[in-house]
Write a structure and sequence with these properties.
Layout (H helix, E strand, L loop, with lengths): L3 E7 L5 H17 L4 E6 L7 H10 L4 E6 L6 H17 L4 E4 L7 H16 L10 E7 L5 H18 L3 E6 L7 H9 L5 E6 L6 H16 L4 E4 L7 H16 L43
Parallel strand pairs: 1-2, 1-3, 3-4, 5-6, 5-7, 7-8
Helix pairs in contact: 1-8, 4-8, 6-7
Length: about 300
């Protein structure tokens, strides 16, 4: 009889609260899948590493492992780092069937969770402002991969068209532009009575806290505008369900990422030298913490 193990793969963070939140999320997924062995691990900054989590599943008797990325969009971590980790484990455990799932992506459940986070923040606002006088700013993490950045823009558009705000703006916490501080300054000049800032992030961390600080600073500079910051996706039940559905999908088939705009497969203007790059991890093989341009 096949013994299935589920590996929830996180990035990791130097922020202790972020690590605790990820472990809590993994516990909730474990509770939702009582028949499976569930472990979690990180690419860097924390233990157990993904390699350590995979080894734990092997010790517990898993002969099939379904590795699920705890990452929203496909950029370098999904396209390079996680496959490298999985392939390294597979090479030393040929008797175990290990499969890597796709990124969480743009998913109806996650969009509904995002909508509810924004609605909840508006429900706590001290004053009532019509939505036709409100700007929604969606903040993504930011990446060197234009495909991942473009998906944040798609999320912003979907939320705007379904929630009835007057306008949406896009911002990123780093790596690419527009950065949050610049986007907030630009939005404040547009004449809206309220600006809702929604970080489309899975969990808390250093970047979420910076976004909150930048939003508070913008509110101090523009007291006539009501700035509202919505919560990130977090442990919303629909987030947990999205992970469970990813596991079920991987049990039945091998889902593929959308590679039509992948800079490693196609010549995307400005990224021509990255086509066909070898699939390697930039993390230390033992998961040691180090900086590689996240800031």
């Amino acid at each position: 009889m096949t013994r299935t193990g589920v590996m929830i793969c996180g990035h990791g963070s130097p922020d202790h609260e972020a690590i605790v939140e990820f472990r809590t999320l993994a516990d909730q997924i474990r509770d939702a899948m009582p028949d499976a062995l569930v472990e979690s691990g990180f690419l860097e900054f924390a233990h157990p590493t993904i390699a350590e989590g995979l080894e734990a599943l092997a010790r517990h008797g898993a002969d099939r492992i379904l590795a699920i990325p705890g990452i929203l969009f496909a950029a370098g971590h999904i396209k390079n780092d996680l496959p490298w980790e999985v392939n390294r484990f597979a090479a030393t455990h040929p008797d175990i069937d290990i499969r890597l799932g796709r990124e969480l992506g743009i998913d109806n459940r996650l969009l509904e969770a995002a909508t509810q986070r924004i609605e909840a923040a508006l429900g706590l606002a001290a004053t009532a402002v019509p939505r036709d006088e409100t700007l929604l700013m969606v903040v993504g993490r930011g990446s060197t991969d234009p495909d991942a950045n473009g998906n944040v823009a798609k999320v912003a558009r979907l939320l705007w068209e379904t929630m009835g705000f007057a306008k949406t703006e896009l911002a990123y916490s780093g790596v690419t532009t527009p950065l949050v501080e610049t986007a907030l300054a630009n939005a404040a000049r547009q004449g809206f009575k309220r600006i809702v800032v929604f970080p489309y992030f899975l969990l808390t961390g250093v970047l979420i806290k910076r976004i909150a600080r930048w939003t508070a600073e913008a509110a101090e500079r523009h007291p006539a505008i009501d700035f509202v910051m919505a919560d990130y996706l977090g442990h919303h039940p629909l987030v947990v369900q999205s992970f469970v559905d990813q596991v079920r999908e991987l049990e039945e088939t091998q889902p593929a990422m959308n590679c039509q705009l992948c800079k490693y497969r196609h010549q995307i203007r400005g990224h021509e030298d990255e086509v066909g790059q070898p699939q390697v991890a930039h993390h230390h093989p033992e998961g040691e913490c180090h900086s590689h341009g996240h800031h």
